[in-house]
Amino acid sequence: MRITSRITIVLLALGFAAPLFRPVHAGDTVRIASVAPVDPDAPRARARAGELIVQFRADTDERDVARLTREAGAARVRRSAFGNRYLVSMDAGFTPADAMERLAGAPEVEFAEANGRMHAFFHPNDPFYSRDQWNFVMLNAERMWDIQKGDSSVVVAILDTGIAYEDFGPFRKAPDWGGTVFVQGTDIVNGDSHANDDNFHGTHVASTVAEATDNTEGAAGLAFQCALMPVKVLDADGEGSFFEVAEGIDFAARNANVKVINMSLGGDGPSTAVRQAVDRAVAAGITVVAAAGNDGKGTVSFPANLPNVIAVGAVDGRKQRAFYSNFGPEISVVAPGGDIRRDDTGPAGVPDGRPDGILQQTFDPASAARGNYADFHYFYVAGTSQATPHVSAVAALLYRQGIHDPVAIKAAMEQTAEDLGAPGRDDTFGHGLIRPAEALKGLGLNLK
Q1: pLDDT digits over 44-92, tens only?
Q2: Distance (Å, whole) CA 358 – CA 340
C-alpha cells in the first residue's frame, strides 16, 4: 500500500451557515472613462521636457522678464493668468538645466523649475472594479498601476487546482481573460500538459493576479499585464500530496521567466521534498508566496512557515485579522482576504448589501461537480487563499520594476507595509498590510 502525506487546500470551509462563496451577475454595469497612461514619446511629453516654470517677483516688469528669459535661451514665453508666473519654452540650442541655473540666480526670480509631467490616475473601466473590489481600493491599486502594471515577460506560476485557461475537451476558458498571456503549464495530478481547473479555486486565485483589466468587462486583476502559468497540483476536491506540490514547484522553476510562485494551499508538514523544491526555486531567483491557513489558530501552515517563503495572513474590510486567518511568528505580511459574513466596505463604510468577499471570475463548483466547467460567474470568496495572490501580484510588479532578489522583494513589502495591531512587527499581522504603491515608489515609472 502506498502511503502519501496529503496536503489540503486552504479554503474557507468552516462550520457556519454562511456559504463559502456568493455569485454576482453583470446586470447593472457602470461605464467609467479610462485614461491611458502617458507616453513619454508623445509630442506634448517631449515639449514639456524643454519647458521651465519661472516665478518672477511681483515688482518685476515685463521688459525685465523678456530680457532675462531671452538671455536664458527662451524661444517662447507664456504668462500665467494668475500672477507673475511664466511658462518658458527653451530654444533648441539651450538646455533647461543651464537656463534654470541662470534664471534662479537672478534677483528678479523667486524660483525656476522644470515643468514636470502630471497625468490622470489609471482607473480601469471594468464594471465590478469600482463597485465590488474594495480590496483593490484598500491597497490603493490605482496609484500602484500608475507606477507599474506588469509585463508578460514576468510569469506568475499558480500552483493550485488548475486554471480555466483554454477550451479543451469538457473545459472552457473563463470569459474575462481578454489578452492575459498564459505560458505552458502542466497537470501533475493527471500526468498531462493540460492544467485545467476542475474545482473553481485556482481560477479565482489566478484572476486576482491577472484577470483582464480595463476591458469593460467583469473585474480587474492586480498585475494584469503579467503572464500566468497554470500548474495543477490539487485535484477536483482541492487535495494533493507533498510529492505533487514538489513536482509542481520544480516544473515552474524550470521556466526562466517564472519569477513568482503562488501557493494558496497548505498542510501540516513538514516535507523535505517540498522544502528542497522551495529552496531550489528561491535559489533560482523565484519569490515563493504561500497562504498562512484558515484554521484561525496560532500555527502557520506548511509551506508558508518556511523561512524563505512569504507567509500571507488575511484581513477583512476593517483591516482587522480575519477570524479564520492563522497567525504566528512566521507571518510576513497580510493582505485582503475578506469575510463574506460581513458588510463593511460600502461607500463611507456604510453597508451596501454585498458581502465582503474577494470578487473574481470562476465557474460554479456545484455545476463542475456535475461535469459542467462552463458555468462562469463572478464569485465572492474569502480566505488566506484569496489574500495570497495579492502579495504574489505585487511581487511580480516589484520584479518587473527591477528588484530581482526574492529576499529584497520580501523586504520591500515588509518595510513599506502599513503597521497594524501592536507597534512594529507582531504575530497577528506580521509587518502589516501590504502597500504596493509604497513598495514600488522611487523605483521609476512603468517600464516599456
Answers
A1: 444 456 888 889 999 999 999 999 999 999 998 988 877 888 888 888 8
A2: 9
Does 344 participate in catalysis according to the annotation?
no
What's the grid cell of residue 87?
Answer: 511658462
Which H or E run includes 75?
strand 74-79
Domain ranges of the chain: 6-32+123-440, 43-114
Confirm whether pTM is higher than 0.85: no
Which option is the CATH number for 6-32+123-440: 3.90.650.10, 3.40.50.720, 3.40.50.2000, 3.40.50.200?
3.40.50.200
| CATH superfamily, region 43-114 | Ribosomal protein S6/Translation elongation factor EF1B (3.30.70.60)
| 74, β-bridge pairs | 90
CA distances from 47 to 44, 254, 320, 393 (A): 5, 46, 48, 35
Specify whether 5 is catalytic.
no
Q: Could you confirm whether 385 is annotated as catalytic?
A: yes
| From 201, 204, 390, 431, the catalytic residue | 201
Catalytic residue among 146, 151, 160, 197: 160
Q: What are phi and psi of 96, to 5 degrees?
A: -60, -35
